[in-house]
Amino acid sequence: QKEVEQDPGPLSVPEGAIVSLNCTYSNSAFQYFMWYRQYSRKGPELLMYTYSSGNKEDGRFTAQVDKSSKYISLFIRDSQPSDSATYLCAMSRGPNTGNQFYFGTGTSLTVIP
Amino acid sequence: GAGVSQSPSNKVTEKGKDVELRCDPISGHTALYWYRQSLGQGLEFLIYFQGNSAPDKSGLPSDRFSAERTGGSVSTLTIQRTQQEDSAVYLCASSSQWDTQYFGPGTRLTVL
Questions:
Q1: Contact B41 A90 (CB under 8 A)
Q2: Which of B42, B58, B99 lies at the smallest CB-CB distance from A104?
Q3: Nearest residue of chain A to residue B32 (CA atoms)
Q4: In CATH, what number is assigned to the domain containing residue A18?
Q5: What pLDDT was estimated at residue A82?
Q6: Is residue A38 predicted with pLDDT exceeding 90?
Q7: Region A49-72: what's the mean pLDDT?
Q8: Contacts of B32 in chain A (CB under 8 A)
Q9: Which of A4, A112, B59, B98 is surrounded by the most beta carbons within 10 Å?
Q10: In terms of residue numbers, what domain contains A81?
């Protein structure tokens, strides 16, 4: 079983739709959760970062962590064609634990104008 | 300011040849990570540097892979006797804090 599972999609939505992206994980020691956006032929860029359970909002993006279910989500409101990219979740046990990050396989999203 | 840069952007090599991939991190970033990204496989952790030392080499897939970092800055990932399964995008990331990584554009390696 992989440490982090993510549905690869592809996901295609009309402009303005609400998008929900999800990851599950198996290691209960994960404390820090991140979402990255990766455009084609570019490196990933950090979108959101949360610690432990709860919600975090940044503009049209909301990251949600449910540690009891080992489930994290990224919601995109009022999706735009410029949101078309691959979204990767990542998680870590935290500092002084080897500094290793575990990534999902990424979900490919297309927002249709 | 300048981000993480990697060179070459593309590399095509023949099976059995050695390749060197270079990463220039953001100035002042003490941590440097190498990842491999294959289609449908996500990011695979290879190695992590703190300064010039590599406290975590657990992700290197075989002894054909090695990496070094000099002067707390530039890092080189070397793959000896390349195999077709080494074909992937190799990504480098640097960080000044353990929780925020900045990625380079990657080197696309194709082994024929």
A1: no
A2: B42
A3: A99
A4: 2.60.40.10
A5: 97
A6: yes
A7: 92
A8: none
A9: A4
A10: 4-112
Q: Which among B4, B42, B50 has the least Cβ separation from residue A105?
A: B42
Within 8 A of B8 by CB-CB distance, chain A residues are: none
pLDDT of residue A68: 92
Residue ranges of domains in chain B, CATH in brackets: 5-105 (2.60.40.10)
> And the tokens for A25?
């994980």
Helix (H, G, I), strand (E, B) or coil at A106: coil
| Inter-chain residue contact B105 with A43, CB threshold 8 Å | yes
- In total, chain A counts a number of residues equal to 113
Number of domains, chain A: 1
A113's CB contacts (< 8 A; 6+ apart) are A15, A81
pLDDT band (50, 70, 90) for residue B98: low
Instruction: Record the tokens describing residue B71, joined without a space.
Output: 């002067």
- Residue B100 DSSP one-character state: E
| Contact call for residues B89 and B106 (beta carbons, < 8 A) | yes
Distance from CA of B48 to the nearest CA of A (A): 8
d(CA B15, CA B12): 10
